[in-house]
Amino acid sequence: MSRAKGDIAEDKACAFLYDKGFMIVERNFYSRFGEIDIIASREKVLHFIEVKSGLDYESAIQNITPSKLRKFIKTLHIYMAKNSLDVHFSVDAVVVTPNDIEFVQNITF
């Protein structure tokens, strides 16, 4: 996917999350391991969110591989350490398709 399409999907995801009561804390946090697309908070929980887009839900969500998730979690821990945070958190995904946006909470393998 091109960076421009990714940015559009992330913008849609941010608007969706905002409408659901999330406060966007940061976008595109990078570490040497990878990137976290969106960091948001709601009800005293920090949500680390991977945004995936595709023509349908299945093709988009399948792009979150075990390897990608490991790198994502390493980056999450770097963010927490860098910001001296000791809070409840969740690893989530937002799947953006042409006709829908879906929030998937607590993704694990």
**Largest beta-sheet details:** 5 strands, mixed
Number of helices: 3
Rg (C-alpha, Å): 13 Å
**Tally of discrete structural domains:** 1
Helix content: 25-40%
The secondary-structure class comes to alpha+beta
Shape, principal axes of CA atoms: globular
Distance between the termini: 24 Å
Order of helical and strand elements: HEEEHHEE
Stretches where pLDDT is under 50 for at least 5 consecutive residues are none
Give me the CATH architecture, please. Answer: 3-Layer(aba) Sandwich
Strand content is: 35-45%
CATH topology: Trna Endonuclease, Chain: A, domain 1
Total number of beta strands = 5
Assign the CATH class: Alpha Beta
Strand order of the largest sheet: 1-2-3-4-5
User: Please, what is the average pLDDT?
Assistant: 94
Topology:
Blueprint: H1 3-19, E1 23-30, E2 35-42, E3 45-53, H2 57-61, H3 66-82, E4 88-97, E5 100-104
Commentary on this structure:
The chain has one domain (3-104): Trna Endonuclease, Chain: A, domain 1 (3-Layer(aba) Sandwich). 36% of the residues lie in helices and 37% in strands. By secondary structure, the chain is of the alpha+beta class. A hairpin with a 2-residue loop joins strand 4 (88-97) and strand 5. The chain is built from three helices and five strands. The mean pLDDT is 94. Strands 1-2-3-4-5 form a five-stranded mixed sheet, sandwiched between helices.
Supply database-style keywords.
alpha+beta; 3 helices; 109 residues; 36% helix; Trna Endonuclease, Chain: A, domain 1; five-stranded mixed beta sheet
